[in-house]
């Protein structure tokens, strides 16, 4: 049974106000009385009613994070750094996974708000004005990352469009004139928020527009590995396979090894994200690197600053760089 401050007051023969002053180290109480109250509280295993205190203070010191999943190491790394920064600032974090289910995502938003979290960070799968209005009207600040919702809701990420354009130019500079671009989420355009894949695709189009003799094939199939193999068979010369995620690139490299397709002898492969598991891959995978830990840390910092009433920028970009390795 939960011990209350009223019970402590009765045992010690004092008022609840005196107990409250002792438990919160406030003035207006004799040292001997404070020591007695603290001793009784410790013996009974008293813990303060956190929610009741939160109602008084107007904050629960909790944050919500909604991610697609944690199968992709990017999200696992990002959450780890977010939680560490939140904890450093005195917050506890609730993590929930939408599994890219739009209805579940909204349920989780409402559930976190019902639990009176002070703020929410989200990689959104929903999009459009109705969803943006839902977030804008939420009784807690919201920060997004990965996919953007609107210019009015703060966003922390990288410049995906520029990063892919630079990747294509890098591939071109290495002598490739045929490119297979792999981005399965593009098939979901108009069905869910694919802001990041769309920006990366625009970067591809930008670079291809500059490089007149580069031939590009875009693969958006859910079952993308066979589609890439077919595209490879139909491509003249040695192509490069540029994937919008390291996860896709690793699947391609594995399939190529099973088919005895040499990388980079017969086809180059490049990913995106520089996930930490790449250190175990052979050949080492070329990719785009950005500081995932910094994104998570910044998302937590900016969200907490907004909770505290500070003005934060509508968009915060983290730098990226091309990592050239033996797979190209």
UniProtKB/TrEMBL annotation:
The keyword Transcription applies. Transmembrane segments: none annotated. It comes from the Bacteria. CDD domains: HTH_LacI (cd01392), PBP1_LacI_sugar_binding-like (cd06267). Keywords: DNA-binding, Transcription, Transcription regulation. InterPro entries: HTH_LacI, LacI/GalR-like_sensor, Lambda_DNA-bd_dom_sf, Peripla_BP_I. SMART domains: HTH_LACI. One of its GO terms (molecular function) is DNA binding. The keyword Transport does not apply. Residues 3-57 form the HTH lacI-type domain. This is DNA-binding transcriptional regulator CytR. It comes from Paenibacillus cisolokensis. The lineage of its organism: Bacteria, Bacillati, Bacillota, Bacilli, Bacillales.
